[in-house]
Every structure is written in C-alpha cells, then in structure tokens.
Amino acid sequence: MLFDLDDTLYPSTSGVWDAIGDRMDSYIIKTLGVAANEVKQIRNGLFHEYGTTLRGLKTLYHIDERDFLDYVHDIPLAQFLGKDEALIETISAYDSRKVIFTNANQGHAERVLEVLGLADFFPEIVDVLQISPYCKPLPQAYQKALEIIQIEDPEHCVFIDDSPRNLKTAREMGFYTIQVGTENRCEFADAAILSLLDLPDVIPSSHKTMER
C-alpha cells in the first residue's frame, strides 16, 4: 500500500498545508526578489507546469532543493496535528506492507508520522529527493518509486492520495486507487473515502496482500 503524506494521513483542514504554502511564498519572495502580490501567481504557475513548486524553481532558477525543502517544512507541526488513536487503530489493522510516497522530503514525513503516532507502521518512505528530477504526478516518479521499493507489478498495489492528478497517473499505471478527502470520487479513483478512518469500508483490514 502506497500512501501519500500531506492532506492524506491527516485532514486537509488541519492548516499544515497553509503553513507550508506561506513558507513557500516567503522563500520565493526572498530568493527571487518578487513582489508579495505576485508570488501566488508565480507559485501556482510553477505547480501546474512542473508538478511541484520545487521542481519549477529547480528547473528555472537552479535553487538548492534541500535548502528549499528544509525551509518550507520548518513549521510547528504540533500546533496543527496530534496523536490520533483512532487512526493508529485503523492503520495497525492492516498487515500489508505500507510505504509513504510523497513530494515532501523524508524529514518532514518522519516528523508528521511521529506527531500522528504512526512512525512504527511506515518504516519505508520514498521522498521527493529520491525520485528527483521527477515528482508526482509524473509517471517517471512512480516508476522510480516502484524500483526503490522493488515492486514489479503495480496492479497488485493500492495507491492512496488526495490529489486527482496523482491518482490519474497511478490509475493509468495499473494501481488500485483510493481518493482521500471526499465521498464523491474523481474519475481516476476506484474508491473514495472522507478520511483514512474509512479505509476499512473499501479495503477490509483482514486482507494481508495488496492484490485486488
């Protein structure tokens, strides 16, 4: 089972992504010297054209990836997230191999997992630096991730994410796709759930393989 991190393991209403977005804006303003009223447009353009703001900044301005990632993820996670016993119980009920696949860096993923109390259940993290120069939703990123975790056939894998464009690539590659954050699944999702607490509704926890 491949899990996205941000806005998937926790609700999109938590405020985490807004805080990260503010740090991205701050980084772009300081690094590129753009006006504050222009930064949102620049960031959105980079995101849509290159897959992530980071990849766009790296491609166009040759910024230091690690410096960017460390800066934007330097937020007080404990102000937004906390240990979730119900989520821990839900995730622990699955014996399947569980891997984080994220466009964030490993340090941020580890901190999120620690705050949520899920670190013991996700010993494997595939982060954006490992799949560089690619990122979700680029198919090359998924291929690199599969190579890293040594899975040959995505048709025997579940892919869990909140983003329709990430789900689209996964679906095209053969993953069983689950969209998180809505009950109205997009056309690229095989199933949809409001939160991971609802995962047993679409994948019985007694399943010990990743097969459909």
Total domain count: 2
Main β-sheet, in a few words? 6 strands, parallel
Reading off the top of the CATH hierarchy, the class of the largest domain is best stated as Alpha Beta
CATH superfamily of the largest domain: HAD superfamily/HAD-like
Rg value: 17 Å
Q: Helicity level, as a percent range?
A: 40-55%
Terminal CA distance: 11 Å
Number of helices: 8
Low-confidence stretches: 207-212
Fraction of residues in β-strands: 5-15%
Strand order within the widest sheet? 3-2-1-4-5-6
Structural account:
The chain has 212 residues and is of the alpha/beta class. The chain folds into two domains: 2-9 and 81-201, HAD superfamily/HAD-like (Rossmann fold); 14-72, DNA polymerase, domain 1 (Orthogonal Bundle), CATH 1.10.150. Helix content is 41%, strand content 9%. It has a six-stranded parallel β-sheet with strand order 3-2-1-4-5-6, sandwiched between helices. Helix 2 crosses helix 3. The protein is globular and about 50 Å long.
